[in-house]
From TrEMBL:
Sorted UniProt keywords: Membrane, Transmembrane, Transmembrane helix
Protein name according to UniProt: DUF445 family protein
RNA-binding is among the record's keywords: no
Species: Nocardioides mangrovicus
Domain of life (superkingdom): Bacteria
PANTHER family: UPF0754 MEMBRANE PROTEIN YHEB (PTHR35791:SF1)
UniProt keyword Cytoplasm present: no
TM region(s), chain numbering: 16-41, 213-232, 238-262, 410-434
């Protein structure tokens, strides 16, 4: 381009008016990304009001509009995009990562069933006399009342002596059927949905530095995009140009911010410079944080025990454990079994054995709820998840982190567009139309 052409293009530029435009778009870009983070993470729970008829109205609105947090439930307000999609992120986390990190059986083996059995025996042993007393008082009160104390003590001692073998059989039986009894995907989804703060922590605990960088880059993107806007405004000088171009700048600034965080997943060279998304660049550190959260709050021994007994297949678990305990109780009765069976009758003996088995089921799982023991065993889970997460292909790691919000990113872009529009009108109010 010749000097004369440049001189003509820049003739009569109002430089104060010109440079205030990229400064404005830079500040608006910073505000867009800053408030965008607030929209992503806050509030944890829905804040707003319920409006009669809103649920029905939402059903006929466009699909994208129905995705606004709270609208489909009949509310007008807001919930952070990430906590609102906690269940979805849990589902994707399982599909993209946890299902590749290990099966239910692998997770159970990492919890070390032998140590679990030893812990159950330690906790359960003092409970044996009370358990036997309760059952016998209920099933055969007269017989149990008339038995001499030394005989009762012998029964307690024999059951306690057989206890390690009984409990090892129970934990082995759980291990054999764990893939049918435990659904890690449903467990993670339910836990994330009930505790959306955990999902926010996954992003915040390792990525706060990158998120802050994205906010600061909002100013850079906005300022650079504002320069051509300022020139177009100088050339045409129409009042509607700045608000209209502000929409484009706001939308693009947010889109560039998301790109900066996630893209490209794998390191590549652009114009000779190595480029990689801020999150996938720190996959190794993210893996440690992610593993810590999953091991401490999601796939814990406490949660596994609760899921086994109270989850969708809880009845099946109880039946399986009772079936495993019945022959063990016969074994504990030893040589006395025949005599006892004759004394009380086969039907009464079977009722007593079944009652002991059912009573023992809950007590064999109760030690799973020991927080200190759960944390100790959880270290194995943490190590497994951290190792496998580090080995995930970067594209799968990015998908795990981003997929939960991908369909809602339009809200962030629309928010940027609205702020860009407002910034354009504000500049018009302060500085007027370019001459």
């Amino acid at each position: 381009m010749s000097v004369l052409a440049v001189d003509w293009l820049l003739r009569d530029v109002d430089w104060l008016h010109f440079w205030t435009i990229p400064v404005f778009t830079g500040v608006i870009g910073w505000l867009i990304n800053w408030t965008g983070l607030i929209m992503l993470f806050n509030p944890i729970r829905f804040h707003g009001v319920r409006i009669p008829g809103m649920r029905e109205l939402a059903g006929v609105l466009p699909r994208k509009v129905q995705e606004v947090p709270g609208l489909a439930q009949g509310g007008v307000g807001w919930q952070g995009i990430i906590p609102a999609r906690a269940a979805k992120m849990g589902s994707i986390a399982v599909d993209k990562a946890i299902s590749k990190l290990g099966t239910a059986s692998e997770f159970y083996q990492q919890l070390e069933p032998d140590k679990i059995a030893e812990h159950i025996v330690e906790v359960f042993r003092p409970e044996v006399p009370g358990l036997v007393d309760d059952v016998m008082h209920r099933e055969r009160p007269g017989l149990w009342r008339d038995l001499p104390s030394p005989v009762k003590e012998a029964v307690y001692a024999r059951v306690q002596a057989q206890l390690p073998g009984i409990i090892h059989r129970v934990t082995d039986e759980i291990g054999v059927h764990i893939d049918q009894l435990l659904d890690p995907k449903l467990m993670v989804i339910d836990h994330f949905e009930a505790n959306p703060r955990l999902v926010v922590s996954i992003f915040r605990d390792f990525g706060q530095r990158e998120l802050n960088l994205m906010v600061n880059f909002g100013f850079v993107f906005g300022f650079l995009l504002g320069i051509p806007v300022a020139y177009v405004d100088h050339l045409f000088g129409q009042w509607w140009l700045l608000p209209l171009l502000g929409v484009a700048v706001g939308w693009t600034t947010n889109a560039l911010g998301m790109w900066l965080i996630f893209e490209p997943p794998e390191r590549r060279r652009i114009w000779g410079a190595p480029v990689q998304g801020l999150f996938p660049r720190r996959q190794s550190e993210a893996a440690e944080v992610y593993a810590q959260i999953i091991a401490e709050d999601v796939i814990t021994l406490e949660n596994v025990g609760d899921y086994l007994l109270n989850g969708p297949d809880g009845d099946r678990t109880r039946q399986l454990l009772a079936d495993a305990l019945r022959p063990a109780i016969d074994q504990a009765a030893g040589v006395l079994r025949g005599a006892v069976r004759v004394a009380v009758g086969p039907r009464s003996y079977d009722a007593i054995r079944d009652a002991v088995a059912k009573e023992a089921v809950g007590k064999t799982i109760l030690p799973f709820q020991d927080p200190a023991f759960s944390r100790q065993q959880g270290e194995q889970i943490r190590a497994l998840i951290a190792t496998r997460t580090k080995e995930l292909p970067p594209a799968d790691f990015v998908e795990m982190m981003r997929a939960a919000i991908r369909e809602d990113e339009w809200m962030l872009y629309a928010h940027g567009a609205v702020m860009g529009l407002a910034g354009g009108f504000l500049h018009l109010v302060v500085f007027g139309v370019a001459r």
